[in-house]
């Protein structure tokens, strides 16, 4: 049997996925899946399968995209070709594009499975989310998996899905969903920490932990998208347009035109953040930037909140994510913690989803553990 | 399409599963699975499907087992009947019996799927483990899922399976796998705690957190079985017969004949435990009883160990389990924490496994989240 995979937007994450698939193709024994990469496309070029590319030489794929044999990118022809292949075929969307997410319904209609870390199809228009759901809810029809949209490879959405589908009642989901904001507040708000807020942001930026403009992290929109996805998977009708989101970019700096100017002026607000922090520490707490899904009271939000020192959120390290599910069956929350960003762990989330599709569609999967 | 479920040993866990399946059968919309309970068997009696029992009146099942229509238990005839049914059929083994686990190969040979919280088939003879694996490794053949053998409903084995199958390298797995020993040491070994060890054991016993004879918890064998399962899923050739297990039952009390006498004499050893605890606390640490899978160095073990106060194991509460996976992709470990024992969460783990089988075998499953 055959399980085909095609990658849209093969950058860092797509590259890590190709590496993992290549290592897998060279592995031995029961565990090996018959996964074949059959296409890559970026905004300019595309490469489609020919006999030269097999699962055994995946490294050729990325160079193929740059070589003379690459064709001009044409998403319609790309999808047409994939839909015509034998076996099950999954498109992996590694972009963060609204325009690509808008194509999912057309792909599903042609029987193509979708796996993606792209949040846009699940946190944007409710109508698109519902359309994607409708088209992937037939038992033998195409599937959509998007584990890596929240917490990268951490088993967050699979766990939430299991809870929901077995009839547990989701009371709340609370978490630190941004690696950037985790790193920032783990360093800034800890007993004994002395660095100013602006210095913490500058350090995070220098280490590559922030967006090019750190305001894209500090405005909370990335967390709002993740809260929206979790809420919708839990059955709530929520969206980023109505969710209360605490934007911690100081008001006067929101209209500043460049990231450089923003960074230059941020120290003007160190006293503001320092006071918030001191107040929290004096109360035996630390500051954490969290997303909160209210499963029962309609009070979902994204905000800077205080947690006591013995709370699991307070002892978080580095840029880890942490997610706590409080449910009827888990009144003491079920907690998942670990790296929630990075190419290797995001690719891991995608690969795990691909395996689930391979299992569901009987593509010759064997159990590796025996 | 039809997905049949039969339960062997329907006690507390089986009862909770039946409750969850009954609630599910009455739920509406996309999420509802076509699961039908078709049989129950205990050590004395059995009830097999007839037209009176449908998914809509699962509560009848348990009384049916006690009523006049119940037949004398006959596992051979039970399995024969199940193997003759249309659609996919899964046996849920809710016993902790070696003898039942030894039947798995015969069930698999007949195409019956298996879901179980029973550790015996996966932590006993390596030959049985391998035979179960061989018979469930064909892509379209029967499947075996046993999430609830470690950490009940916590997504421990599914996560480990995902890591292994996508080619991550398991460096170590470390965890508190016993709810009893978690509760005991969370209370006994904490800054400021004053209760003696024997008083902590007595309190745990009075609250129903221990086995009838607490030595069955303190000897570490339950944890050893879980470490064996995790190690084997990670590809190691380990077993409870060779694993170093620290039995914390004081030597002179191991041969004592009754649980009562053991409890009566345990205070004689309070000073021993108190010294261990004081030494740990003076070093800024607490005592925790842990299982340890060494993925690279062959030093897997079960032991009483010290953890510094800011370690996630030190701040554990109640009787929660916690499991930390350190891998090549997660050098900062991926951590899962929450209730790892109890009927409702164990049934949740079983139900999640049943859904995975239903998905793989195309039994009319729809995605609930849209």
TrEMBL record, chains A, B:
It is an enzyme of class 1 (oxidoreductase). Its EC number is 1.1.1.3. Keywords: Oxidoreductase. This is Homoserine dehydrogenase. It comes from Coemansia aciculifera. The lineage of its organism: Eukaryota, Fungi, Fungi incertae sedis, Zoopagomycota, Kickxellomycotina.
């Amino acid at each position: 049997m055959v399980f085909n995979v095609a990658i849209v937007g093969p950058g860092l994450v797509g590259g890590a996925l190709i590496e993992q698939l290549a290592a897998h193709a060279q592995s031995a024994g029961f565990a090996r899946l018959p996964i074949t990469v059959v296409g890559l496309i970026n905004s300019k070029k595309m490469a489609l399968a020919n006999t030269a590319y097999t699962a055994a030489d995946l490294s050729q794929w990325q160079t193929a995209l740059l070589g003379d044999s690459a064709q001009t990118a044409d998403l319609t022809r790309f999808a047409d070709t994939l839909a015509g292949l034998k076996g099950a075929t999954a498109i992996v969307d590694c972009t963060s594009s609204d325009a690509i997410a808008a194509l999912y319904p057309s792909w599903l209609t042609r029987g193509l499975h979708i796996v993606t870390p792209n949040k846009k199809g699940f946190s944007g228009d409710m109508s698109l989310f519902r359309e994607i759901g409708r088209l992937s809810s037939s038992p033998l029809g195409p599937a959509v998996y998007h584990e890596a949209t929240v917490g990268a490879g951490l088993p967050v959405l699979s766990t939430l899905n299991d809870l929901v589908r077995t009839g547990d009642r989701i009371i709340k989901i609370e978490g630190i969903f941004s690696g950037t904001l985790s790193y920032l507040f783990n360093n800034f708000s800890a007993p004994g920490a002395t660095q100013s807020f602006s210095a913490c942001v500058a350090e995070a930026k220098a280490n590559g932990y922030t967006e090019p403009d750190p305001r894209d992290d500090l405005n909370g929109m990335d967390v709002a998208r993740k809260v929206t996805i979790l809420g919708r998977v839990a059955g709530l009708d929520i969206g980023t347009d109505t969710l209360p989101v605490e934007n911690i970019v100081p008001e006067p700096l929101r209209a500043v035109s460049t990231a450089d100017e923003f960074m230059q002026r941020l120290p003007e607000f160190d006293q503001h953040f320092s006071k918030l922090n001191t107040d929290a520490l004096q109360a035996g707490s630390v500051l954490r930037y969290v997303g909160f899904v209210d499963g029962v009271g309609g009070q979902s939000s994204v905000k800077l909140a205080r947690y006591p020192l013995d709370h699991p959120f307070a002892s978080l390290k580095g840029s880890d994510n942490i997610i706590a599910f409080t449910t009827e069956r888990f009144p003491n929350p079920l907690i998942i913690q670990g790296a929630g960003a990075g190419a290797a762990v995001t690719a891991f989330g995608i690969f795990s989803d691909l395996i689930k599709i391979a299992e569901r569609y009987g593509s010759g999967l064997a159990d590796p553990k025996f």
